[in-house]
């Protein structure tokens, strides 16, 4: 299934201090926090703190803009200024933000820590690849990508069907953010 970012409505952050577009969530929930995993694209246009998500592991990836510096309550300071490089942190962390320039957009993965673990992998070499069974979403961050469901352009995402065997083709200059989620071992 192909998801067009333009079809994902902008909605307020949980804390009301920013905007996000939810691309996919599993299981589907209406505005609740009962998800196993969630993928979104956030618009950061002010130095607002991030929303808290207790029990959630997060990964964030700068898509465009000058980025920002994240000051976490565990003492870490991270400059999210290099596009397409994932950064992981705990959802319950208090995160203050200082913009490096103007507004930015970032890609976000949230996974319920007690039930699963997730990762965002940048794929950027022109090639044909097969997503593995843990792949739940492929996001086109740059260029175009051919999938079994059709062509992705910047901002589009593809949810592979269960046990997908069809390959993806990254066209010249394409960059995919591949989201993998695996259940935690009991």
Automatic annotation (TrEMBL):
CDD domains: cupin_HutD_N
Gene3D superfamilies in the cross-refs: Jelly Rolls
Any Pfam family: HutD
Protein name, UniProt field: Environmental stress-induced protein Ves
Protein source organism: Rhodanobacter soli
Classification of source organism: Bacteria, Pseudomonadati, Pseudomonadota, Gammaproteobacteria, Lysobacterales
